[in-house]
Specification:
Number of helices: 9
Radius of gyration: 18 Å
CATH topology of the largest domain: Glutaredoxin
CATH superfamily of the largest domain: Glutaredoxin
CATH architecture of the largest domain: 3-Layer(aba) Sandwich
Helix content: 40-55%
CATH class of the largest domain: Alpha Beta
Order of helices and strands: HEEEHHEHHHHHEEH
Structural class: alpha+beta
Strand content: 5-15%
Number of strands: 6
Number of domains: 2
Strand order of the largest sheet: 4-3-5-6
Largest sheet: 4 strands, mixed
């Protein structure tokens, strides 16, 4: 009887993995910070064992997200991520338009080639202040991939297949369920799971206050 139950358990695990693979949500190590799941978000930027985690909910077409990427993220990277004091996870909150959904899926396609963060940066470096204005069209997203050295054919196949549509939907729902209704939104989470919410593209000094308090 015990052996039979073990067999059922193994079958269930295999079944779950198969469903996840078909949906584009591949099994990953559980990454839950307080009540926030990031298991379908980006790879962790920085030391996974850092005492503080910054969870960014963002949209690639978001003007504020772009400003934060240009003006605040470099300082946080220098002072906290590169020094091992904090790490960063980006979670899609694709709410501004169809190109937001496509760009978010594209980032995960780049992740298949271990270049999520390089592609993430490329998209923001090509950002224009329009919503569904064409700068993040599928054609341009494929071009960005080629410009940073991704296998463009493999990338295009992934994007055309909508492989990561369910992952982007799951991430967007995760943000909404945690009270994020506009981008960017950030949770600063300490080792004990305590978290603080920062809304909008706040300046470096605001993040410094919370990061130092959590450290």
């Amino acid at each position: 009887m015990k052996a039979a139950w073990i067999g059922v358990g193994v079958a269930a695990v295999i079944g779950i993995a198969a469903v996840a693979a078909l949906s584009g949500i591949e099994p990953q190590e559980a990454r839950v910070y307080g009540e926030i799941s990031t298991e379908n978000g980006s790879p962790i930027l920085g030391d996974p064992e850092a005492p503080v985690t910054i969870i960014e909910f963002g949209d690639y077409q978001c003007h504020g997200c772009h400003n934060w990427f240009l003006n605040t993220k470099p300082l946080i990277t220098r002072d906290y991520i590169e020094t091992g004091k904090a790490n960063l996870i980006f979670v899609d909150l694709a709410i501004l338009g169809q190109d937001s959904w496509t760009a978010a899926q594209a980032s995960h396609c780049a992740g298949d080639q271990d270049m999520f963060w390089e592609y993430h940066d490329a998209v923001y470096n090509n950002h224009e202040d329009t919503i569904d204005g064409g700068w993040a069209s599928k054609e341009n997203l494929v071009r960005f991939a080629g410009e940073i050295g991704l296998d463009a054919d493999e990338f295009k196949w992934c994007l055309d297949s909508n492989k990561y549509a369910d992952r982007v939907r799951s991430n967007t729902n995760e943000g909404k369920s945690n009270g994020i209704s506009a981008t960017p939104g950030f949770f600063i989470v300490g080792k004990d799971g305590q978290s603080d919410l920062i809304t909008g593209a706040q300046p470096y000094i605001t993040f410094k206050h919370f990061l130092d308090e959590m450290s």
